[in-house]
Amino acid sequence: MKYLVLLLLVIFCSFCANAQSVKDSAKILKMQAPDSFQVQFNTTQGAFILEVYKAWSPKAADRLFQLVQTGQYQGNYVFRATDKYVQFGIGQRKDFNGFWEKHGITDEPVLHSNMDSIVSFATGGANNRTAQIFINMQNNTKLDTISFRGVKGFPPVGKIIAGMENIRKFNKQYGDEIAFKHQDSILAKGNEYLIKNFPGLDIITDAIILKKP
């Protein structure tokens, strides 16, 4: 019953919390992040806080700022959770999913290592970082130099400074399966596809930028 109430709340928030539309694309893509900022992600397992550093990856920091400001992470299902990675970023709004897919950010050099609790953008190839981010759940330093579809390494953008214990509670029963085999279906059909085919996934109910003290 508790899970059902939370799910209904997520659906409600998706309609009322985000007034922007893809028609605001020119404005959205001009949003620039401060030198550093913190994002609190509230989830079914409790909250965690990501601190973003623009010096690590300027374009990625700006994109993450844009994503949070437009509500992209509200109602996200954590579709990948393993001992190595946690990944999310495909939102409830299909229009925005398509928008981000068409506006990938250009690749940047790796200036920090993919260690435990460090956050980087996922990518499907060169200049293809869009909306999905992953959290390193262990030291994955091979990602610093790995060649992947024309990309040389995964540049970190920030680190989890609180709540890693909650992230480690995310449901791992589906492992890498959804990430490797079902992303196109999620993009096309939204959360309904995950609810129907992969019950029990954890949810990011919302993400908010914290005000500095």
From TrEMBL:
Its EC number is 5.2.1.8. InterPro entries: Cyclophilin-like_dom_sf, Cyclophilin-type_PPIase_dom, E_coli_cyclophilin_A-like. Residues 1-19 form the signal peptide. One of its GO terms (molecular function) is peptidyl-prolyl cis-trans isomerase activity. Gene3D superfamilies: Cyclophilin-like (2.40.100.10). Residues 39-177 form the PPIase cyclophilin-type domain. Keywords: Isomerase, Rotamase, Signal. The keyword Signal applies. The keyword Signal applies. Pfam families: Pro_isomerase (PF00160). PANTHER family: PEPTIDYL-PROLYL CIS-TRANS ISOMERASE CYP38, CHLOROPLASTIC. This is peptidylprolyl isomerase. It comes from Limnovirga soli.
